[in-house]
Structure formats: C-alpha cells, structure tokens
Amino acid sequence: MRLIVDQDLCISCGLCIEICPEVFDWNDDGKANVTEDPIPEELEDSAQEAQSECPTDAIQEP
C-alpha cells in the first residue's frame, strides 16, 4: 500500500499523525508527510483510518 499527502490540501491539523504516527510525521514546511513507502502491512489499517479521517482528503493513493 502506498499513500501520499497532497501538500496543497494539507491544513496541518495533525489528525493523521495522531492516528498513525508510525506512517505520518511533520515535514520541514509544517505539513504532514508519509514516512513509510510502501506502508508495512501491519500499519495499513491505521493508515487507512488516517486517510478516511483527513478533513481535506489530502491523503491519497499515488
């Protein structure tokens, strides 16, 4: 599984980082970023939860 964060849509709310800190973290611009590519199978469920909870739909499949 692979995900990206659309930097133009990210509003830096941090929800994805709260839900799945193993996959998402802050980048140098203060926006969320995917740190695991591909996402390990054991983290896919929480990464998908973060994707579905993102208020701006910034987390997308490439």
Task: Describe the model.
The chain has 62 residues and is an alpha+beta fold. The protein has a single domain (4-60), classed as 2-Layer Sandwich (Alpha-Beta Plaits), CATH 3.30.70.20. Helix content is 24%, strand content 16%. The chain has helices at 15-19, 44-53, and strands spanning 4-5, 24-26, 32-34, 59-60. The strands form two sheets. A two-stranded antiparallel ribbon has the order 1-4. Strands 2-3 form a two-stranded antiparallel sheet.
SSE topology:
Blueprint: E1 4-5, H1 15-19, E2 24-26, E3 32-34, H2 44-53, E4 59-60
Antiparallel strand pairs: 1-4, 2-3
Short description:
With 62 residues, the protein is of the alpha+beta class. It has helices at residues 15-19, 44-53, and strands spanning 4-5, 24-26, 32-34, 59-60.
The shape is: globular
The profile of the biggest β sheet is:
2 strands, antiparallel
Instruction: Name the strands of the widest sheet in spatial order.
Output: 1-4
Average pLDDT:
98
Spans of at least 5 consecutive residues whose pLDDT stays below 50 are none
Order of helices and strands: EHEEHE
Number of distinct beta strands: 4
First and last CA, distance: 10 Å
In the CATH hierarchy, the architecture is: 2-Layer Sandwich
Count of the separate structural domains = 1
What name is given to the CATH topology?
Answer: Alpha-Beta Plaits
Percent strand:
15-25%
Structural class: alpha+beta
Radius of gyration: 10 Å
Helical residues, percent: 10-25%
